[in-house]
Amino acid sequence: xxxxxxxxxxxxxxxxxxxxxxxxxxxxxxxxxxxxxxxxxxxxxxxxxxxxxxxxxxxxxxxxxxxxxxxxxxxxxxxxxxxxxxxxxxxxxxxxxxxxxxxxxxxxxxxxxxxxxxxxxxxxxxxxxxxxxxxxxxxxxxxxxxxxxxxxxxxxxxxxxxxxxxxxxxxxxxxxxxxxxxxxxxxxxxxxxxxxxxxxxxxxxxxxxxxxxxxxxxxxxxxxxxxxxxxxxxxxxxxxxxxxxxxxxxxxxxxxxxxxxxxxxxxxxxxxxxxxxxxxxx
Length: 282
What we know:
- By secondary structure, this protein is α/β, with parallel strands linked by helices.
- It has helices at about 20-25, 65-75, 110-120, 135-140, 160-170, 235-255, 265-280, and strands at about 1-5, 30-35, 50, 60, 100-110, 125-130, 145-150, 220-225, 225.
């Protein structure tokens, strides 16, 4: 899989992709990351990439010409026909080819589900916005979607690009040492979609099904006056699975109750939620 990043600050990424899983994925040839300096596609002695907004107002806007040339250098052509604004990440085109993404505070939320769809793509091109934003014609003519990593405003899209690369590349087959690690985590897929115990190995984990992950513990068994839950050390996989599911529901209800609306919940989950709510007096 290949990531291409267009930015006015290529030096930002000098060290950020040289550590941990991202570094190993590149070294093993599973993931490639190209960083392209937008100023290299200007033609004036000041290497100008921005200008004042039409209509007046604060700030500056990234000009369309350098961005168009940068995209053309990557083999990205203007779209033909009517633009499909915010095309669904579930579109069949997401399974191959190239996706051009504008990183913007106005974009759709970047979620684990979007990351899973992007992990099926051969190449992702990320445009890092700056200043007041990017000339909208670039979005209309070249981009498949706008993405935002959260309901806040960054100084530029570079941090967002790093987040997208890290999130997506760890879902590429072979990147993680244990493939199941990408399944048993917050916002992960439901149990029915997990195939990690195809060989009959007892599984004590629990798929997130769109919920937050359960708490994790390791040695020593006692730390700071607190002891790790006994259920995790008794070897009973059925009890462990039930405990972990209950903890997922508790943590999600406490920190992200909004996720419960779209989560994959069984009848047992509903009973557990009712018991937790009653216990908490809600």
